[in-house]
Amino acid sequence: MSTTATPKKARSVRSGDLLELGIGIGIVLLVLYIGSFFRLRADLTSEKRYTLTPATETLAGGLEDIVYVKVYLTGELPADLQRLSQATRDLLDELRVHAGDNIQYSFVDPSESTDAKTRNEFYDQLQKAGLTYSSIRVREKAGYSEVIVFPGALVTYRDRTVPVQLLKTQLRTPDADIVNRSINNLEYELASAIRQATSARRPRIALLAGHGEAGGMAVMDMTTAWKELYDVEEVRIEDRLDALSRKVEGMNYRVNDFDALVVAKPDSLFTGRDRYVIDQFVMNGGKVLWLVDAMNANLDSLRKNQFSIATPLDLGIDELLFAYGVRINKDLVLDQSCAPIEIYTQPYGNQRKLERFPWYFEPVLIPQAQHPIVSNIDPVHLRFASTLDTIGTDSVRKTILLTTSPRSLAQRNPVRVSLNIVEMDMGFEKRSTPHMPVAVLLEGPFTSAYKDRLPPNFTQDPTVGYREQGKRTAQLVISDGDVIVNRVDPAKGMYYMLGFDRYANAKIYGNRELLMNAMNYLLDDQSLISIRSRQITLRQLDAGRIVEDRLHWQLVNTIVPVALSIVIGILFNLVRRRRANAPKAN
To answer: Which pLDDT value is given to residue 466?
Structure first.
């Protein structure tokens, strides 16, 4: 009896095991089949780097037709660029979750062809489409080789194509930090390109001219950046009521032809009629970015003389700003946190010596306000800035965006601007006035600066369309006109990116991001600011420990998994045998 029972018992146990195995495999297959209809994702990073902002989700979910993204960052790339390429693919996959088939993409290697003529023709096509290439030195076993890469993409919606530069750098070989910043801005770049391609109407920006404003090459970098999202046009008022707005038949008030106005570093008087046109532009809901110098100080006057006297500029716009809730004081800021200046000192042998000193008239401000316009931007570089005061107007909300450092002071009019200041003890430790405002955001319904000041026959003229109480709008006032001025090389006929520092030979200041965020905010593109304000931290490995502990971690990564598998297998067999040999209760 016992000899025949044992095989039957073994077959019964084997059959039970096979049944359990079959049921387990069936459950796994069923779960995989059901899971194929869903995409479950969990972003466990602290900064939620793989999660789209609500603004981008809304943009992707609201697409009415197919947006096709063709990415040219693929192929044989350095490790950092491979990381950027993979981040682009991950972002596009995440966009497809919210847009479905309305987001489609492909990755194309522009250097795939083995024929040099074909490759060069393809390169020319990409450059004509608006993409910029980079020549990267790649280290190989036999030495170094040059690789042409196009770190960009073309976003196409119906009949409109927008180029996107995924790698933001002026350097020949991008380092890990540059790539990390590009990944940090990746969602912003793609979202703004999609918005630009799908928008039926682009907001219009007027660059004011005719009062000595900065223009041309001096502001080319910023205007080029704005033109990626908006229509930018230079406008001269010249006493014309219809310069910024028009009177529509059947409407009581005028309609603005522009969404925003930029007043950049004027140096001459605004006529009364020009001021009135700007005032009514604000009353009808126009947004204004004021970049205004209060004093006529500049470095050019120091080239021949060791000093100059800075006096107030008579622009005639003080009454406008005062009515809107801010006053630019007639002074100059001196800040211990400042940019350097190079000055020739005492002769060294037969030659003069060029030395670098802190130039207190050029503050470098680290944004402290928790506002989207200044969030996560680099320090802002100003030149001969003045302080601001806010005026009590109940209907207008004032937000201070930029202030001086804790060790700063203001010199009141007239101000002696001298190169000898670099050798003086300014006594910042004893007589500083910390955190003086230099940039303020004004939001709300403004009251006209011409209230109760115009004759009734003018204000009641139906062709004028005078408005005394304005719509709700916003204005940003920065007490420095040079904040928008980029460096220009007249000899080469070229300009540098705004924020470029000639001593560091790199872009280190956040002026460009400040003004781009400001325009996005003024034009209610707050969704773009919410994307740009994200911060992704680069967690680099310790290069020294990689070399020192290389063998240790190689052994851990190879031996430990195998050892754990063996131990788990042994324990599983021991438990299984114990359960099989355990006596069963009658």
So the answer is: 93
